[in-house]
Predict the 3D structure of the following.
Amino acid sequence: MLRSESHAMGEGGGGGEYSVLALLAVVFAVTFELRFARTGLFRSRAYWISMGIVFCFQVLVDGWLTKLSAPIVLYASDEISGLRFPWDIPVEDYLFGFALTTLAIANWIRCSK
Amino acid sequence: MDKLQYLGLLGGCLVCTVPLEFVYGFRVWRSPARLVRALGPVICFFVLWDLFGIHRRNWWFNDAYVTGIELPGSIPIEEIAFFIVIPAAAISGYEAVRASLGKSRDG
């Protein structure tokens, strides 16, 4: 049984709390790398190629998670921009995915001792 | 079986990425202490972020496709699994790319 189905199926408008949270996560991840971990990740070819691969996999995995025909994860329409691409993936998910994977890789390199 | 869909999706990610370290020779899952040290803070950060979003009703989960097992704060165990599997998969992918590019261990 879906909760607040009508709430989820509406259109976003201009962004909301999830949009802000996703941006904050990106700011945190970038700041973590540049100020704390300092692994040189953003100058690394391997990192950017990996991010490209992560993006491709995210489209598949997140596409399945968020497909509106049978969503596993649902978003409050007021709290997202409403932009979904490709398929039904909220664009905020790419910011969140970038932050999650960048933090993980940066901290992995930092923990090499 | 539908209730295992989210976990199944994460299992699929593991199936795709765990073998990489046996193909390329790096050690991610086989360096569990380092993986725990690396992922610990990341998991903590995103679990808190997720709890906030769930509490604020920014997002929620379809009862049909999750097990219904939740930790305090109404966070599905699938989300905990997500914050372990996805970062580990990204790290494995990164190490595989590095190995493909011929980088040395500390390169």
